[in-house]
Amino acid sequence: MDMTPPFCLDNRYQIERTLGRGGFGETFLAKDTKMPSQPICVVKQLKPLIHQSQVYQLVQDRFQKEAAILEKLGKEHRQIPQLYAYFEQESQFYLVQEYIEGTPLNQLVKTTEGEARQILLDLLPVLTYIHNQGIIHRDIKPDNIILRQSDQKPVLIDFGAVRETMGLDINSRGSTTSSIVIGTPGFMPSEQAAGRPIFSSDLYSLALTIVCLLTGKLPPDLTDPQTSEIVWRTYVPNIDPHFANVLDRALQYLPRDRFKLASEMQQALQTVSPTIPSSPPTVPSIPPSIPSQSPTEVISSPPSRQGAGWQSAVITGGIVGICAVLGFVLVSPPRTPDPPPPTPPETVTNPTPSPETTPNPTPPPETVTTPPTPQVSTFYFLADSAYREQSNMAQRLRELRSAGYNGAGQFWIPDYSNLSGQPYYQVYVAKFEGRDRCVELLRQYGQQQPDAYCALASPNPGDSMNQITAQEVRPNPSARISPDEGVRDHYAQVNRRNYSEGWSRLSSNFRQQHLQNDYSAYTNWWDTVAHVAVERTQVVQNSGDQATVITQLRYDMKNGNTGRDRLRLYLQWDNSRNVWIVRDRDKL
Ligand SMILES: Nc1ncnc2c1ncn2[C@@H]1O[C@H](COP(=O)(O)OP(=O)(O)OP(=O)(O)O)[C@@H](O)[C@H]1O
């Protein structure tokens, strides 16, 4: 259908111009010709992805329901555009909405702390409202928030549910499925990328949006390529630490460490005294009797203030790929439930400026805007953060691509602890070119029993992805992880603020000798560190039960400073717990 102006939709809405083009169709600025003043409105076109009459009816039905929800939201909340009408024309669906005159946040240059804070404070009640209605927005990002000119209030546009409707399908068993995950790579948290958004997923995306406003950078510039954690404080060194802690808590990797509700986050933000921990305490506090250890030579890292111009780097968000398809474990040095030990550094000695102060050249993640065709081998890496640190997933992705798995490459990091209690690598493959390919791939990545794992990989999963059932495979929990993996796992645990676990994996001799057996001094120290990165490990000795690993660490402190440590860690395998214990350490 040619929609060049002055095309009229529904014999009423005269198209003035195109505002945007997304995964499901176009968004237009239009004139309502059936109103005396011919007011301006926004017409959003939505095209179903599956073209079958049975599916069409389903989409039609769901579209009506979603439109009714949007009508209610727009009527009841001033910071959500009003729905004026909805209609169908030529097998396409349309929403007619209030035009919000103002500036989308992605067009703002860096905001001040005060402005960013106000935007957050103005949006949290909107989230409380929609969450109370049982609705998760699912695509919060600067592009989907318009700062209204008339009152400078942020208005939330582009709710995800209605777009999800367009991906509805009916599987071979006759049940309704959706073949797409709504959200924008980079802005959505792992559980949402894995197809399980929850209320705190919106809080994560909102906090990240605010961090983008504060730093003038996009998520790829703020994401640690090794761990995928959001590292941003070095760009805004003078930020109120309380405000920063609130944002960091909403940005926690594990949903259980975040605020559960928008109202909780709002309350934390409005609390005057800086008492919010960056994540909830995981252990009962022990009265401190020894002054907390702090780095004696923390090096100040001048923050990079050069604008990366995130507003100009377009993330074409929208749909991102296919929901869970066929799962099996890749590589997996099978591992134990939770990771091992660190040493709280007493001094930080390396004067090298932090690499975090220079913009990360990682390009924005690719977006899949249509479901991959079954002919293409499409794969997704899904991995736990503890593994990511040691595995360099980007590299593996490249390798997989060069091995012929040239589908849409994305790797996401879901919180699988809810499902299996254990983190593990998982590859989701839409379709194999044969079972042999699966076996070969797993063998290539070190899986000792690829046949066993590939038993789950059907040689011919069928033409429709919906015929494939998601499966989970747990790695063998009794297998031993390598010593360097043990070290990396430990620091990943510390980054998650799971201090009690870290402490439990230090030998009693270590605790006594280096920490005066003071758990609270240990946690206090780690609480001053925003993120610790394991930059390098080298196993210099490994006799099975004992190993020595030279480890280089970088500390990004919450106050914006950066420091480094080189340690020789002496590890001891604990058979009863299946973990590496740190017996001792030397500073190098
Ligand atoms: N109610 C509105 N008032 C003013 N501008 C709007 C409104 N809704 C959308 N826009 C603008 O229209 C453009 C396209 O918006 P929209 O988010 O609806 O679609 P998209 O990003 O093209 O596609 P997708 O729905 O796949 O994300 C954006 O620039 C957005 O700011």
Automatic annotation (TrEMBL):
ATP binds at K44. It holds the Pfam family Pkinase. Keywords: ATP-binding, Kinase, Nucleotide-binding, Serine/threonine-protein kinase, Transferase. Its EC number is 2.7.11.1. InterPro entries: Kinase-like_dom_sf, Prot_kinase_dom, Protein_kinase_ATP_BS, Ser/Thr_kinase_AS. Residues 272-309, 335-375 are annotated as: Disordered. Gene3D superfamilies: Phosphorylase Kinase, domain 1 (3.30.200.20), Transferase(Phosphotransferase) domain 1 (1.10.510.10). Residues 277-290, 335-345, 352-374 have a biased composition (Pro residues). GO terms for molecular function: protein serine/threonine kinase activity. It catalyses: L-seryl-[protein] + ATP = O-phospho-L-seryl-[protein] + ADP + H(+); L-threonyl-[protein] + ATP = O-phospho-L-threonyl-[protein] + ADP + H(+). Residues 13-276 form the Protein kinase domain. SMART domains: S_TKc (SM00220). It comes from the Bacteria. This is non-specific serine/threonine protein kinase.
